[in-house]
Design brief:
Mean pLDDT: 82
Distance between the termini: 14 Å
Helix content: 25-40%
Number of helices: 7
Shape: globular
Strand content: 15-25%
Strand order of the largest sheet: 1-3-8-9-10
Low-confidence stretches: 3-32, 64-70
Order of helices and strands: HHHHEEEEEHEHEHEEE
Structural class: alpha+beta
Number of strands: 10
Oligomer: single chain
Length: about 230
């Protein structure tokens, strides 16, 4: 579902965690300081392992299921973005990913005057303290180097209120809320405006109920999340 008010306000109203520092929420210029923002998450190693296990579970299930259940994509024109990857697309190259559970789908679209450069980007972001800084910096750099105009940002984020796996404990939820805030802050700084966010149901993703947990950007820079076109 779409958030009907800014993501930060929604997450704060969920009362799953203490208030986030204003320096973290408002620092839209810290677009390459992912590591510094990540240090604001006070979570145990067990909590980080827990949220990452969902990524691995989702990946192993997807690898098995692909033999009998084709992912929602055009086999010729869509480039697959795997867990931990980012890709750009231009002309008729479309981007897609699936299996978003505790992971985040992040996309940027914009107007491109140079046909040799990409006009859309997607990343399948893991909530991983060891890899996030490098992954985000790679995504941020690729978008900046494209020199897009009139950019829009998109996030497919875990729903932490409805259809949450009972195995995800309170600390794991708090970690994901803070991680959501960090991605929102970084993406807002990158595109220069508030990104649009859609929640995906983790339980349905784990049960392989397609199209939940999917994200696509087509050649017209139209965005589809969980099987619904969300571009406005």
């Amino acid at each position: 579902m779409f958030f009907t008010k800014p993501l930060i306000a929604v997450l704060a109203s969920a009362a799953l965690m203490p208030p986030v520092s204003a320096a973290v929420v408002n620092n839209t210029n810290a677009t390459t300081a992912a590591g510094n923002l990540l240090s604001t998450i006070k979570a145990s190693p067990a909590a980080w392992r827990q949220v990452n296990e969902y990524c691995r579970k989702s990946r192993s299930k997807r690898d098995l299921e692909i033999r009998v259940d084709s992912p929602p994509r055009d086999p010729e024109d869509f480039a697959y973005v795997d867990i931990g990857e980012m890709k750009g697309g231009r002309n008729k190259t479309n981007l897609w990913t699936w299996g978003l559970c505790t992971c985040f789908g992040v996309a940027v679209t914009g107007m491109q005057s140079d046909p040799t450069k990409d006009s859309r980007f997607m990343a399948h972001v893991r909530p991983d303290a060891d890899t996030f800084d490098e992954e985000w910096t790679r995504f941020h750099t690729a978008v900046e180097d494209a020199h897009l105009e009139n950019m829009d940002g998109w996030i497919s984020t875990p729903d932490l209120v409805h259809e949450v796996s009972p195995e995800l404990d309170r600390e794991g939820k708090q970690l994901l809320v803070r991680f959501s805030l960090i991605i929102y802050t970084l993406l807002r700084g990158l595109v220069g405006k508030a990104p649009k966010s859609v929640e995906h149901p983790m339980l349905r993703v784990l049960q392989l109920e397609l199209p939940y947990g999917t994200m696509q950007v087509n050649e017209h820079n139209e965005v589809k999340i969980d099987g619904t076109w969300v571009t406005q």
